Structures are given as C-alpha cells and as structure tokens.
Amino acid sequence: MWKTVNYEVCGRGHKKDSIPCQDKTYSSYIKNVNIIALADGAGSARLSHYGAEVVIKAASEYISNNFDAVINNEDGKEVKINILNYLLDALKNKSTELSCDLKDLASTFLMVAVKDDVFLIIHIGDGVIGYLKGHELKIASRPENGEFANTTTFVTSKDALSSMKLFRGKTDNIHGFVLMSDGTSDSLYNKKDATLAPVITKMMHRNAILDHDKIFEKIKQSFDSVIVNNTLDDCSIAIMSRKSEILCDYQDMNDLGKCDLLGIVYGTNSYKQQISKYDYIVNYLHKPRTLEQVSRQLYIKKKYARKHLDKLLATGLITRVGHKYAQYIK
After folding, report:
1. 266-309 pLDDT, tens per residue?
2. DSSP label at 125?
3. What was the pLDDT predicted at 145?
4. What's the pTM value of the predicted model, to 2 decimals?
5. Which residues lie closer than 8 Å to 64 by C-beta, 6 or more apart?
6. Helix/strand/coil (H, E, C) string of 208-261?
7. Per-residue pLDDT tens for 98-154?
8. How far apart are CA 11 and CA 13, in angstroms?
9. In whole angstroms, what is the distance from residue 57 CA to residue 137 CA?
10. C-alpha distances out from residue 93 to 6, 153, 181, Å
11. How many alpha carbons fall within 13 Å on the CB side of residue 101?
12. Looking at residue 31, what is its pLDDT?
C-alpha cells in the first residue's frame, strides 16, 4: 500500500516581504490512483499561489479520471496536449474569477501517479523528481531552467508543451517517489552531481511505516527549523512510499536503523539492551495495554514505563487507544 505525505512552508524572503507561500503540494487517492503533486508559483507572478493550487488539483482530478487512457495512449504528444489543455482551462477559469491575466497565475508543475504496478511522471519547469529503486536513490527528472539564471518554464509559458516531460513505467523494485521545489533542492539535491541527499531514503522509510501525523510533524519540524534556513525561497516536498524489504517494519530493521529511529547511540555498551527493551514493549503491545500492565510486565516503576512509552509514541511506532497503548497498525 502506497502512503503519502506532503508539506510546504513560506520562505524567509517571502515572509520578510509579507508574500504568501507560492509553493503548493497535494496528495490524493481516487479511483485506485495514488497521486502526489507539487507546484512552485512564479515569483514574478502576483497571484501565482492561486495558480499553483489550481494546477495541482486540476491535474490530480484529470489523471485520477483518465489514468488508464493516458497510460494506454501511445501518442505521447496527444497525451501532453490533453493534460496541458485541461490545466490551462482550469487556470483560465481562475483568471476570470480573479480578473487577472493568465500569466499572473504562472507556476511549475510536478506529479507522480501510481495505479497497480504502473507509474506516471509529469514535469514542467524546475524542481526535482526522484525515486528509490532497490537501495539506490535515482533522479527521474531534473530541473528545466531557461536560458538565463533564475528562469524556468511554467504551465502558462508558450513553450510549456515542448518542455513538458512525461514518463511511464512499472513500479517493479521501486519503493518510493519524491517531488521537491527548487527551494528544497538547495538542501536535498546536489546540482553538480545530480544526486539526492541520503536523508530522502530515511523520509521515505518513515513515511512507509509510521503514522501519517507523526511523519508529517517530523518533516514539518525539519523544514521549519533547518531546510527553510538554507534558502530565501519557499520550500516544499511530497513523498509517496510503500513498505517493502528495503523500507521494512520496525521488527525487521537492523540495530543501526532501530538506534537511529529511537535516538539511541549506536555502539555503546548498553545499546543492544536498550533496543531489546523497546523490542519487547512493541511486541507486548500487539494488543492494547494500560500503563500499569506495561509497568508490571517490565518490572519497572510507572514513571519509567511512561518514559519508554512516550518515546515510542513520539516515533509513531505505537499509538493511544483510549487510556491504553498499542502497536500502530499500518
């Protein structure tokens, strides 16, 4: 089962000038089609935050309703024309509503859609699309930049059709996809080597095995405190991943992975003992238990049992069921 998480945050430059966040992200699951989408509104377009929102929702609607037709159509140009026309029609309706020019709604566009064992990737403009195949992070689509610095192609650009990238393929041995805006790529993408930061794999893994609210909070905290400080631009990301032999459940993780998740220092004299204790608690919570039951089972005081449970709650490995604790069920 594919899981998704997405987040956008206003950049320091826009906050300083009281400009709305122009990055927008979206995810959906409609008609058995999993979708993540991202759009980066043009800084030169005064209402691009509206345009970005329109683009990701219109595209998700179109692909959800026409996935099979898009995948089975061998005429790639026709597919691109149909997609772009749908987006432009939606933008024209918005421009009428806002009494603005189409160019005022300019944005880039990135999307990954998956149904059964088939994926579809669409990309217009800058930003990065990556994926995890086996153990290796790969680039599916690099930024499309214009002739001059800090320029790119937008959905509303005259050359949007010729610049649009469209990929179709099988999800065999693919465990996750990621979309990121150019602001985020300043931190998580090496332009020189065209490689993604290894932390992307960790984010995909956490998304695959943890509660959505927990991974969302972790990503939000990371972006708000670290990523956004590496650029003046807005920052956004969208991830789609699934549990697999690579992105495995906690019980199947190695000691190093468990230490990283639990915040235990790997290699110390007590790390194996600490892991063993958390392993035992997680397994014991295969059905809901009270704090008192956990305390008795571990032969420790309630305050220490609560401390262990709080850590597991923070990671998302367990959850609260009323006044009891239980394993998080994916």
Report:
1. 999 999 999 999 999 999 999 999 999 999 999 999 999 999 99
2. S
3. 62
4. 0.91
5. 28, 30, 31, 33, 35, 113
6. HHCCHHHHHHHHHHHHHHCHHHHCCCCEEEEEEEECCCCCCCHHHCCHHHHHHH
7. 999 999 999 999 999 999 999 999 999 999 999 999 999 999 999 876 444 456 899
8. 5
9. 27
10. 26, 21, 25
11. 8
12. 96
Structural class in CATH, domain 250-327? mainly alpha
Amino acid at 272: K
Cβ atoms of 79 and 73 within 8 Å: the answer is yes
In the chain, where does the domain assigned CATH 1.10.10 lie? 250-327
What integer is the mean pLDDT of 45-49? 94
Q: State percent of the chain over pLDDT 90.
A: 87
Residue ranges, comma separated, of all CATH 3.60.40.10 domains in the chain are 2-242
Q: How far apart are CA 229 and CA 251, in angstroms?
A: 35
Residue for token digits 């949007």? Answer: 160
List phi, psi (to 5°) of 291. -60, -40
pLDDT (average), residues 15-32: 93
SS (HEC) of 31-46: CCEEEEEEEEECCCCC
DSSP 3-state of 84: helix
Q: How confident is the model over 252-260, as a mean pLDDT?
A: 93
Quote the tokens at residue 289: 């238990």
The predicted model gives 29-43 an average pLDDT of 96
**pLDDT score at 180:** 97
Host H or E run for residue 6 = strand 2-9
Distance CA 323, CA 325 (A): 7
Neighbours of 269 (CB within 10 A): 6
Q: Where are the beta strands (DSSP E) in 109-188?
A: 109-115, 118-124, 128-133, 136-141, 165-170, 174-180
CATH class of 2-242: alpha beta
